[in-house]
């Protein structure tokens, strides 16, 4: 692939078990299929946006279109880096890193999901650690923030293991009902104290300006 016009396709994050990268059409199709095969118990909704509601083909299409939309809508003032997560060459989930006026605020937000067969193996912590390394070590972030429903112990557990601290509560609306979200925040000093996953970054210099830094 010629990366002159969109060098973000050359960005790679690697941990001991995972590789994270912006998916081209083939990988994006795999990612959509992972989502279509399920990412949570259908009786509960762990996300603040109910994007998994719908038939499998509808979920797959929504994932495909959403990720293409993050590329089409990218600007240095408002960006979403939506990376496919691969284990031994197989797509297992998605890790997002988002910035709003990042060049000024130096604050990034994370979000992620894993396919059901790949949960419970520590991948969630490892892929979030990769995104945090990009944010802090690669882009010079001062803070990383996240949020999860108060009844989503897996997501909250990942945040706790990586050093996030409570940052208050929010109320959201999911499936027409109110839900309580716990906000979490991680500053640079605490990230440096708690980091314990080896992460390497490739291809950042070519696309650093795209993040507003």
Automatic annotation (TrEMBL):
Annotated GO MF terms: protein N-terminal-serine acetyltransferase activity; protein-N-terminal-alanine acetyltransferase activity
InterPro entries: Acyl_CoA_acyltransferase, GNAT_dom, Ribosomal_N-acetyltransferase
Signal peptide location: none
GO cellular component: a single term: cytoplasm
SUPFAM superfamilies membership: Acyl-CoA N-acyltransferases (Nat)
Regions annotated as coiled coil: none
Pfam families, per database record: Acetyltransf_3 (PF13302)
N-acetyltransferase domain location: 18-187
Keyword terms, alphabetized: Transferase
Transferase found in the keyword field: yes
Name of this chain's protein: GNAT family N-acetyltransferase
Lineage: Bacteria, Bacillati, Actinomycetota, Actinomycetes, Kitasatosporales
């Amino acid at each position: 692939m010629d990366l002159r016009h969109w060098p973000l396709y050359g960005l790679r994050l690697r941990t001991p078990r995972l590789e994270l990268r912006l998916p081209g059409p083939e990988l994006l199709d795999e990612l959509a299929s992972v989502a279509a095969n399920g990412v949570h118990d259908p009786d509960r909704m762990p996300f603040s946006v109910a994007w998994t509601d719908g038939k499998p083909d509808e979920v797959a299409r929504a994932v495909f279109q959403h990720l293409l939309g993050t590329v089409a809508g990218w600007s240095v003032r408002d960006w979403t880096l939506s990376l496919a997560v691969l284990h031994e060459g197989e797509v297992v989930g998605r890790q997002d890193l988002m910035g709003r006026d990042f060049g000024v605020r130096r604050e990034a937000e994370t979000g992620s999901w894993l396919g059901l067969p790949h949960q419970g193996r520590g991948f969630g912590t490892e892929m979030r650690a990769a995104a945090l390394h990009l944010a802090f070590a690669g882009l010079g972030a001062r803070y990383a923030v996240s949020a999860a429903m108060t009844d989503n112990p897996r997501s909250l557990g990942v945040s706790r293991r990586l050093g996030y601290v409570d940052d208050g509560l929010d109320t959201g609306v999911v499936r027409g009902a109110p839900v309580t979200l716990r906000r979490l925040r991680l500053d640079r000093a605490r990230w440096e104290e708690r980091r314990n996953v080896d992460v390497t970054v490739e291809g950042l210099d070519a696309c650093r300006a795209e993040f507003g830094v």
